[in-house]
Amino acid sequence: MSAEATSPGAPIRRRGRPRIDLRRIGRAALLGPVSRDRLPDALAHVAEAHRAHHPDADLAVLQRAYLLAESSHRGQMRKSGEPYITHPLAVTLILAQLGAETTTLTASLLHDTVEDTEVTLDQVREQFGEEVCYLVDGVTKLEKVDYGAAAEPETFRKMLVATGDDVRVMSIKLADRLHNMRTLGVMRPEKQARIANVTRDVLIPLAERLGVQALKTELEDLVFAILHPEEYARTSAVIAAAADGPDPLTAIAGNVASVLREAGIPSEVLVRPRHFVSVHRVRIKRGELRGSDFGRVLVLVGEDADCYAVLGELHTCFTPVISEFKDFIAAPKFNLYQSLHTAVVGPDGEVAEVLIRTHRMHKVAEAGVIALGNPYAADGTAQTTEPADGEGTEGERADPTRPGWLSRLLQWQQSASDPDTFWTSLRADLAQDREITVFRTDGGTLGLPAGASCVDAAYAQHGDAAHTCIGARVNGRLATLSTVLKDGDTVQPLLAEDAASGPSPDWLDHARTPAARIAITGWLEAHPQAADSGQPGVPAGREPQSAPPFGPGTPRARTASAVVEQPDAAVRLAGCCTPVPSDEVTGFTVRGGAAVTVHRLRCPAVARMEAVGRAQVAVSWGDEQACRVTLVAESFGRPRLLADLTEAIAGADAAVISATVEPPSEQRVRHTYTLRLPDAAGLPALMRAMREVPGVYDVSRAQHPAGAL
Q1: What is the pLDDT of residues 252-279, one digit of tens each?
Q2: Which of 21, 490, 535, 566 is most buried by its number of CB atoms within 10 A?
Q3: Distance CA 641, CA 648 (A)
């Protein structure tokens, strides 16, 4: 983990972050050990920041860790000439400012010792306990991987596995990368660009998902300065020019504070400046920037209920911009973020964005999982470095702070067939900048990326069992699997009883989550015949009933029960009329005689085939009575119609293969069901039961226009 030299031309730091004189720290570090009753001068900044968040923290363990790190790194220098110890000190200071607990800070001071010095993990374990040893080992493993393009997939697979075992490992890694990015100026431009690209593509999205906004925003600005220096300079000039002009946000913040004082709501009202990348994005979106676009008003209160009280006062005393309101308290974001977002119009017509949250929410919004303490301690906030009983039932560390997206990621990464598949899926997942929450019918929720479909919801809820999904209900209405879900929708995936059925390759066009895509791809690879057929519900080893045959010699379709006089031909039941046993049928050869397509005698396609001179082939039914049929139900629209129809179908022991409902027209609704019946003799009774459903005025066999054969 090589820390780079300090760059005098590094981008401007975030406002309010204390500047640390690394040269002075370096000189203090060279003085060597001090008496055990006094903290080393070089550790004073870390101790001050740590005590600000944890007043009762025991600093003795930090002193011991610093002394070990300083002595082991003594003689090692950074490219800027400072002692190497300044790097772990700076990384630890970053984490201390974010509120990390003592165990994390101890591991941060030691995070380079095992890799770059003669200190061993056994020594770390003996002196500081199992927990610190675990973190140091996790960070060390991350640093042993190659960041080259060819190695990236496996590199970040290991990174995510390490992160899932303990999110504090990634916290240390992110702080380490931030310090190295701050001090990247003396590197060759091509190396700066390579490191900045990796930071942009993976580490910044991971910081976002871990909720560590303070690290994420500064990393974004540093990457922006390296990869887009001209845009960075232009944005910097715009911000500097705005600083010399009027500040409407300060006036609006003053008005907000006055309104809340009069309402008797204790609060703290601040103006929160946007960082460089945020200003750049707003400028691209809106073109000409307004004075209020350079920041947002932040209101901090004591209790959750106070947040809604503040919202009510603001919407009463100011003109709200309703389209800007978002409630991330009732429905937190995937990275633990909670806040109320709104926008109001000030006295001079300026529109100001307002964030409303409690002090606790603000701490988590800035530091994410870092602010949540030791997730493996008994009370979640312990400051000890002794081993904690945090093992799960199967050896996995039970982490109550792990965001839901990370748990899902750890599940699907184990199913990825190879590192390249994992890498592609990871990049796609990290590129998602917004998540929606949908509700299950049992009251639970599912977190999905924006643009997710019913396919994604099915796999998120049911895992591999979703292979048998035939449709879904969205907000009580029957919907196709391709239906895109919206925030707040209620979704109920519908699964077929036939466990042998499986997904169609078309599902990949609608899947947005890695879990769904990997599961579908894995099933299709294991069932190549079904993948080639392009149809769902066709397991390996079977000839699909309505798919083109594969060629001469293909076994007859046993499920069709149709027998033709050409023994080497495959049998295909026509999808336009879905014949079933006992129907009067005929056949026509297709594809040069390699297959025979079976139609009902009354199918319109039969007349067309005869008109062009196609010869008929004699077809008879075999002994098997199971069949697949498509029925069309015409009905008047009414509540619970779909539920009553599906109940009638279930009462006939029919399995639903697929179902569609056309949009209502003049209060009439058309339902199309493809069903599998155990015995074709039960078809008339099924159709009668469906006709008896109130509101249904006709049920008929499908007569789709026949395609080219």
Answers
A1: 999 999 999 999 999 999 999 999 999 8
A2: 535
A3: 11
Output the 3-class SS for 524-568.
HHHCHHHHHHCCCCCCCCCCCCCCCCCCCCCCCCHHHCEEECCCC
Q: Which residues of 24-41 are buried (b: 16+ CB within 10 A; e: fewer)?
A: ebbebbeeeebeeeebbe
| Type of residue at 552 | P
For residue 649, give the amino acid letter.
I
Model confidence, pTM:
0.61
Q: Where are the beta strands (DSSP E) in 532-666?
A: 562-564, 570-573, 585-590, 595-600, 616-617, 619-621, 627-636, 655-661
DSSP assignment of 369-418 = GGGG--TTSTTS-----S----B-TTS-B--TT--HHHHHHHHHHTT-SS
Q: Any idea which residues carry the catalytic annotation?
A: 115-116
C-alpha 110/C-alpha 72 separation (Å) is 10
Residues 100, 363: Cα–Cα separation, whole Å: 11
Other CB atoms within 10 A of residue 604 CB: 15
**CA gyration radius, the chain:** 32
Q: Which amino acid, residue 355?
A: L
CA pair distance 448, 485, nearest whole angstrom: 9
Q: What single-letter DSSP state applies at residue 20?
A: -
Are 497 and 467 in contact, with CB atoms under 8 Å apart? Answer: no
